[in-house]
Amino acid sequence: MDAFEYYFPTKVHFGKEQLNALPSVLKSYGKRILLVYGKKAIKQNGIYDYIVNVFNENNLQFTEYQGIKSNPIIDDINEAARSGRAAGVDMILAVGGGSVIDSAKLISVSVPGETDAWNYMSGKATPHKAIPLITVLTLAATGSEMNNIAVISNPATQQKMPIRHPLLSPRHSFLNPEFTFSVNRKYTAYGIVDIIAHALEAYFGNGRSPLSDKFSIAIIREMMEIAKPLLNRPEDYELRARMMYAATNALNGLTLYGKKSGDWGVHALGHILSLMYDTPHGASLSIMYPAWLKCKAEILREPLVYLGKELFGENNPPDIIRSLERFFTEIESPVNLRQAGISADEKDHILRRMITNNVNGWMYPLCEKDLECILNHIV
Q1: Which of 137, 204, 264, 358 is most buried, most CB within 10 Å of its CB?
Q2: Residue 125 shares a structural domain with residue 72
Q3: CA-CA distances (angstroms) from residue 161 to 58, 177, 220, 270, 359?
Q4: Are residues 31 and 76 in the same domain?
Q5: How many domains is the chain partitioned into structurally?
Q6: pLDDT tens across 184-219, in order?
Q7: Percentage of the chain modeled with pLDDT above 90
Q8: Nearest CA to 99 among 75, 68, 74, 120?
């Protein structure tokens, strides 16, 4: 095992009544709030009215930025940061899923930073200060509520990339499983895939840490156990709670302690589909993960066989991969381009974009031949 530091700077408030603490948390940071959210969902399910009531009852002033996209773009972040600066906000309240929270993270450093936010993404500038970020989670998937990572797209440069920095961690995150009841079947399935992918990319990472690997396997097993019941009973509090807790732990560092790093090559592959075709993030991962495993099966044989025995009772790599692919199919998440509404004729275009965007793998390199192999498995 490698040496590591174990630190969670985010205070998580998990459960039905925890939002009662929101007013005191907000008031501890000031009076002026930038409220950031997506399109219509929180207005349709009543969460928006609840939040605004909290503001009004506690004499809190707010400026709002609505319309964060499911694949968030840098333009929205720059515009929201300008609004926040103009209003002199003391904090940001992000209400939504990973896209909203990722955007709010970059907004939190851009408000005091006064530079184009893409400069932080590209490494041309380094965050030096952040205004406090508080999150209210409405979709369990990315784990963004308890980490210091954000993934953002730039339509102008045709790039989608991650940023990691200690200043991006939320100060407080409120996780009420009831707030995810209204997430539809399709996006619940995509969230399940995203959680599993996070666990897999830690599991197939660099180094050995047996307990951390067992955490990854337990998270995957948890999601496979609850997936079908949850898709049939979307307002089952216990099932939603289990998914939300798994999502948070899949990407808060728990599965990586004692390892040098995860392998995020599959996420990089999936980002190309999201960038080019606005493919939902989870859908891009269910397409790419089995294909990546098929092309890397030999080099991954030992950890893959152990994983297969634990999850499926299988010890033959092709059978293990088929079992994973079958699970994704059973929860109606796509496993090829056609199922995602993308023509097989796009293969060469996708390959060129992968090469242009330097998708070359992490721990396991991806050369052009590897990329062609992966694409051949998804057409």
Answers
A1: 137
A2: yes
A3: 38, 29, 25, 11, 11
A4: yes
A5: 2
A6: 999 999 999 999 999 999 999 999 999 999 999 999
A7: 94
A8: 68
| Shared-domain flag, residues 176 and 189 | no
Query: Where is average pLDDT lowest: 251-255, 274-278, 361-365?
Result: 361-365
pLDDT of residue 75: 97
- For the record, the structure tokens of 169 come out as 């961690």
What CATH code is carried by the domain that includes residue 75?
3.40.50.1970
Same domain, 299 and 219: yes
CA distances (Å), 61 to each of 95, 129, 260, 283, in order?
16, 22, 44, 38
| Residue 171 and residue 57 share a domain | yes
pLDDT of residue 7 exceeding 90, the answer is no
Q: What is the residue range of 75's domain?
A: 11-180
5 confidence band (pLDDT: 50, 70, 90): confident
Q: pLDDT-based confidence at 151, cuts 50/70/90?
A: very high
Cα–Cα dist 236/282, whole Å: 22
| Boundary residue ending a domain (150, 180, 210) | 180
Q: Is residue 79 part of a domain?
A: yes
